[in-house]
Structure formats: structure tokens, C-alpha cells
Amino acid sequence: MKELLEYLARGLVEHPADVRVTEVQEQDGTIILELSVAQDDYGNVIGRGGRTASALRTVIKAAAVKDKRRVFVDIVDS
Q1: How many domains, the chain?
Q2: Between the CA of residue 1 and those of 28, 43, 49, what are the distances in Å?
């Protein structure tokens, strides 16, 4: 799922080399994917009203259900 998020984010931004996804494993098995991009690209990743970010989270959660996992996507400031 980390690779899927990187792939989707790189398609949205103007500086794909600056896309970073960090995977954090919680005690209960939950995975948190922290997405950071170049400062200029946060608007592209979040989208108007947060729609793009919501769509990214939906796609990742759907992929996680297939593997019977809980995954959350956080968009973090680098």
C-alpha cells in the first residue's frame, strides 16, 4: 500500500522526486502512512475542500480491506 500511495501522489504533484511516504506500524497492527510532498504541492495533494486527499484515503483503505488490514493516511508537513 505504501507503493500505491507513492504512485498516486507522484501523479498529482509537480515535483514527484520530493514525494515521501513513511510507514508506521502501531501496536494493534494498524498501519499509518505519512505522506509528505514539496511545499508547493500540498494544494495539489489536498485538493479543493480536501476532496483529493479524501479520494486518496478511500483508495488506500479499499486496498487495505483486500489484505484485511487497517490503514490510515496522514498528510504531514515535511
Answers
A1: 1
A2: 18, 22, 24
Query: Which residue is listed with cell 490503514?
Result: 71
In one-letter notation, the amino acid at residue 72 is F
Residues 6+ apart with CB under 8 A from 71: 1, 30, 31, 32, 33, 60, 61, 63, 64
Domain that holds residue 39: 2-75
The domain spanning residue 59 has which CATH number? 3.30.300.20
Q: Give per-residue pLDDT as tens, 31-55.
A: 999 999 999 999 999 999 999 999 9
Counting every residue, how long is the chain? 78
The pTM of the whole model exceeds 0.70: yes
